[in-house]
Each structure stands twice: as structure tokens, then as C-alpha cells.
């Protein structure tokens, strides 16, 4: 079962090594003593490679998972509670978006851009992202206005970005002076985000109160299951608990995602995995990323940055395990992507912190790795996400043969479609084409 996956990984690694060697040879041949860069290209060269590499890993793996991931269940999404590899992708995007917020806001301050203009830019970008997400929803759903799905991946990103980036831009000092003393210096990155931590605490309290108090009159308070036949039909009409109830009440059943895995397996009523209540915890995830970005700004040594990221990863992982009761189903707050539970936020943020630490160590601290083949896709993540969504059923990105039931052929098809987008990303980077909202 795993032989095809291991062979494919070996083949891709071999292609990457050969490509790297050829690229090195060609760069030596074409080397010129006179190089010119525009402001945009120079800024890209000077930014942390780890951030674009991390984002590239996330978008490539997202495309691979959306393309079927070879049919391996552990590479896709957990049906309800639990954490599979595919569940790490979306929160990684949210989190890295938060990491970039302090860097972009401080850069804008350094250029003399007024705070109100920064806030307008954040608001405009959020609106564009939200509307683009609604448009993409019609690829897989209905374009009838009475059945249009309101929320989705980009919409969740837009709301989280508006809350986290907008709040940071509103509260961040233009010139931060850390407290004197060893303790103040050690905690300066945390103290610089104190208002973001306060907001995160408020959002956690609000989300928890709604989750365990608000409920359908015919459902038990604090229910966190998928409804339907789950747990011997204990609550068949209570799918998603407070989260599902709020979505159905405010948006209506016809404006929610109709084909979730949980509904397919358990047969409950409709719930949306990117609904309204989860926006609160998604904003918390982005705020945790803001803290990691503040560490980049205020901790200058490689050791200080990586050690703090790994320390936060350990704290978040332990907190998530405690909330989940060190189990899949029996904790106070199980790890659940569909509900975007706070334990899910902490667990996935811990994984993101560990991955960023690895990327940063090899790309920016030791400079042993340039980030390939992931950095170029990371520079055009939004373009790749939109492109692969639009081309979801188009050749040559996707193809079928009469028998598609084996892991081998499904893996080849998924890797083929993903590889085409990696090639497109490298062509865009080579031509200095960078698309942002």
C-alpha cells in the first residue's frame, strides 16, 4: 500500500536533485557581474525565505489533498474528531498569514504610511478575498442566489485577516521601546503583542460561552457531535452543536456546504465546516501567528527566534492535548477541524511553529537550502489556489482512465496535477509575476 507512495517520493526527490544540479550549472554559466533588480524583486530577495517556503509547502500540499492525495485516508481530512495530515493545511495558511502581519505593518510604518491608510488597505483586501471566495464556491456548488454558499476557505481567511491584521494595525506602536532589564528584554516580543493576547482571550471566552450555552431548543447544550447516526442516534438533529445551529439560523440550510464528509458518513443535517462560529477561533489562530511574527521583529538572533517558536509549540501542543483529554473523542474540547475547536487551533499552531522552525533553520539561519521547490509556489499562493480551483476538472491538470481504484494510479494523477502547478509557479517567479490581492 505504501510502496507506491515511497516510490513516488523517491522519484520526486530525484527529479528535484537533478533540477537543482542543472540550475546550479546554468547559473554559473550565465553569471554576470552586473545585476539589476526592481524594488519588488529586491524586496522578495531580502525577505525571510522561510515564510515563502512554509507557505509554498502549505499550498502544494493543499492542492495535492484536494486532488485526492492518492486515496490514502491519513493524507486527507478526519471525518469528525481527530487530526489527519490534510487537516494541517488550512490552519497553516491562517497561521502564516498572521506571522506576516507584523512584518507588513511595520514596513508600512517605516515608509510613513498613515495608520488609517493601512486599515483601509486591510479592509479592502479582506472584502476582495471574501467576494473571491464566494465566486469560487459556485465551481462546486450552485450559482442560484437562493442556494449560494456564503462561507468557505477564502472567506474564513478574509474574516481572520480582518480581525487580526486590523487589530494589530490599530494597536501596534509605531516605535516600540522594550522594558529595561533582563526579563523585559527576554519577553519583549510577547509584551509588544499584549493587546493581541487580550483580544485572543476575549475571543476564546466568547467562543467557549457560545459553544456550551447556545443550542437548538431540541438539542442538549454543549453538544459537539456530527448528529445523525453518530453515537447510536443520541442527537440526530443536532449536527455541529452550537456552530451548526447558528449557521442554520442565520444563513439558512441552502447557503451552507451540502456535501461534507461528516454528513456523508453520519447522515446528519447540513453543517458548514467554514461557518460563522469558527471564524472566532480562526482569528485566534491568526493572532498566534502575529505573536510568531513579532518574534521575528524583536528577536534578532536565529537562536532566540527558533528557541521561542519551539517553546510556544511545546506549550500549545500540551494545552491541546489537555483540552482533548489525550484522546480523540473523550476530552472536554476534542480536536475538531469541522468545529475549528480551540484544541484544534493549538495543536495545528504547534505543528506550524515546528515546521517554520525547521524551514527557518535550513533556509535563513544555516542557509543550506534556498527553499526549492516550495518557495516559488509560496510567492504566488493565492494565484495557485484560485487557479487549481478553477481547473479542478480540466485537462491536463486532471485526467481519468477506466480503472482509477488503485492507490498507485490515483497517486500518479494527484502528483501530476500538483506538479503542473509547481511548474507554473516557477515560471511565474522566473518572469517576475507575483499576484496578490
From TrEMBL:
<feature type="transmembrane region" description="Helical">
    <location>
        <begin position="190"/>
        <end position="214"/>
    </location>
</feature>
<feature type="transmembrane region" description="Helical">
    <location>
        <begin position="339"/>
        <end position="362"/>
    </location>
</feature>
<feature type="transmembrane region" description="Helical">
    <location>
        <begin position="54"/>
        <end position="74"/>
    </location>
</feature>
<feature type="transmembrane region" description="Helical">
    <location>
        <begin position="309"/>
        <end position="327"/>
    </location>
</feature>
<keyword id="KW-1133">Transmembrane helix</keyword>
<feature type="transmembrane region" description="Helical">
    <location>
        <begin position="6"/>
        <end position="26"/>
    </location>
</feature>
<keyword id="KW-0812">Transmembrane</keyword>
<feature type="transmembrane region" description="Helical">
    <location>
        <begin position="80"/>
        <end position="101"/>
    </location>
</feature>
<protein>
    <recommendedName>
        <fullName>Heparan-alpha-glucosaminide N-acetyltransferase catalytic domain-containing protein</fullName>
    </recommendedName>
</protein>
<dbReference type="Pfam" id="PF07786">
    <property type="entry name" value="HGSNAT_cat"/>
</dbReference>
<feature type="transmembrane region" description="Helical">
    <location>
        <begin position="122"/>
        <end position="142"/>
    </location>
</feature>
<feature type="transmembrane region" description="Helical">
    <location>
        <begin position="382"/>
        <end position="399"/>
    </location>
</feature>
<dbReference type="InterPro" id="IPR012429">
    <property type="entry name" value="HGSNAT_cat"/>
</dbReference>
<keyword id="KW-0472">Membrane</keyword>
<feature type="transmembrane region" description="Helical">
    <location>
        <begin position="411"/>
        <end position="429"/>
    </location>
</feature>
<feature type="transmembrane region" description="Helical">
    <location>
        <begin position="148"/>
        <end position="170"/>
    </location>
</feature>
<feature type="domain" description="Heparan-alpha-glucosaminide N-acetyltransferase catalytic">
    <location>
        <begin position="47"/>
        <end position="172"/>
    </location>
</feature>
Amino acid at each position: 500500500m505504501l510502496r507506491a507512495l515511497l516510490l513516488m517520493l523517491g522519484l520526486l526527490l530525484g527529479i528535484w536533485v537533478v533540477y537543482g544540479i542543472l540550475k546550479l550549472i546554468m547559473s554559473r554559466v550565465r553569471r554576470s557581474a552586473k545585476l539589476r533588480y526592481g524594488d519588488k524583486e529586491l524586496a522578495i530577495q531580502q525577505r525571510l525565505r522561510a515564510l515563502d517556503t512554509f507557505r509554498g509547502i502549505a499550498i502544494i500540499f493543499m492542492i495535492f489533498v484536494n486532488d485526492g492525495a492518492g486515496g490514502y485516508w491519513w493524507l486527507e481530512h478526519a471525518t469528525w474528531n481527530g487530526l489527519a495530515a490534510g487537516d494541517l493545511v488550512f490552519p497553516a495558511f491562517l497561521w502564516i498569514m498572521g506571522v506576516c502581519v507584523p512584518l507588513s505593518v511595520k514596513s508600512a510604518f517605516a515608509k510613513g504610511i498613515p495608520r488609517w491608510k493601512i486599515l483601509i488597505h486591510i479592509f479592502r483586501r479582506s472584502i476582495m478575498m471574501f467576494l473571491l471566495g464566494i465566486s469560487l464556491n459556485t465551481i462546486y456548488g450552485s450559482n442560484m442566489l437562493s442556494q449560494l454558499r456564503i462561507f468557505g476557505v477564502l472567506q474564513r481567511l478574509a474574516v481572520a485577516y480582518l480581525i487580526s491584521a486590523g487589530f494589530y494595525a490599530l494597536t501596534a506602536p509605531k516605535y516600540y521601546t522594550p522594558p529595561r532589564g533582563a526579563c523585559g528584554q527576554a519577553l519583549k516580543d510577547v509584551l509588544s503583542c499584549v493587546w493581541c493576547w487580550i483580544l485572543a482571550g476575549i475571543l476564546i471566552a466568547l467562543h467557549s460561552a457560545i459553544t456550551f450555552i447556545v443550542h437548538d431548543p431540541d438539542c442538549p447544550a454543549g453538544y459537539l457531535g456530527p448528529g445523525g447516526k453518530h453515537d447510536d442516534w443520541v442527537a440526530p438533529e443536532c449536527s455541529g452543536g452550537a456552530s451548526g445551529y447558528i449557521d442554520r439560523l442565520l444563513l439558512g440550510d441552502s447557503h451552507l456546504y451540502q456535501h461534507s464528509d461528516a454528513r456523508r458518513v453520519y447522515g446528519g443535517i447540513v453543517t458548514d465546516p467554514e461557518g460563522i462560529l469558527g471564524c472566532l477561533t480562526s482569528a485566534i489562530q491568526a493572532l498566534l501567528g502575529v505573536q510568531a511574527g513579532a518574534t521575528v521583529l524583536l528577536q534578532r538572533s536565529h537562536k532566540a527566534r527558533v528557541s521561542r517558536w519551539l517553546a510556544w509549540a511545546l506549550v500549545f501542543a500540551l494545552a491541546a492535548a489537555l483540552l482533548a483529554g489525550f484522546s480523540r473523542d473523550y476530552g472536554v474540547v476534542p480536536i475538531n477541524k469541522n468545529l475549528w475547536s480551540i484544541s484544534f487551533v493549538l495543536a495545528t499552531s504547534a505543528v506550524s511553529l515546528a515546521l517554520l522552525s525547521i524551514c527557518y533553520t535550513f533556509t535563513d539561519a544555516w542557509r543550506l537550502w534556498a527553499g526549492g521547490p516550495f518557495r516559488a509556489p509560496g510567492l504566488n499562493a493565492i494565484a495557485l489556489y484560485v487557479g487549481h480551483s478553477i481547473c479542478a476538472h480540466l485537462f491536463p491538470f486532471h485526467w481519468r482512465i477506466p480503472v482509477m481504484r488503485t492507490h498507485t494510479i490515483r497517486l500518479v494523477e494527484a502528483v501530476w496535477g500538483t506538479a503542473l502547478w509547481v511548474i507554473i509557479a516557477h515560471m511565474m517567479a522566473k518572469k517576475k509575476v507575483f499576484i496578490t490581492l
